[in-house]
Input
Amino acid sequence: MARPRRKVDAEPIDLLLQALGDPTRRRMIERLGERPHAVSALADLAGITLTAVGQHIRLLEEAGLVTSSKLGRVRSCQLRHEGLKIVEQWLEARRSVWDRRLDALGAVLSSQGEGEG
Output
């Protein structure tokens, strides 16, 4: 799997959305949301090689969504909920802008409807 090029000055949200843009990585996030998993277990669940899982995990770590640790010969991964909060905050900021715009549109349409009656 070729690694996507990253800008040195990439915003955290850019890295997060890039990481979440891949269906295999989203499935890994879903699995890790249930509980920590060994890298080998993630490979088995996804049906891909350990090398491919390692590449996915590295990107997820760079995005701040996952942490991994090694105990003996087993590397385990767990979800970092703080990474998902960044996405949630980014979406909420855009939602509030659109809510205000839609409220303003509703007020205009309402006033026009009253004028016709």
Summary: The chain is about 65% helix and 10% strand.
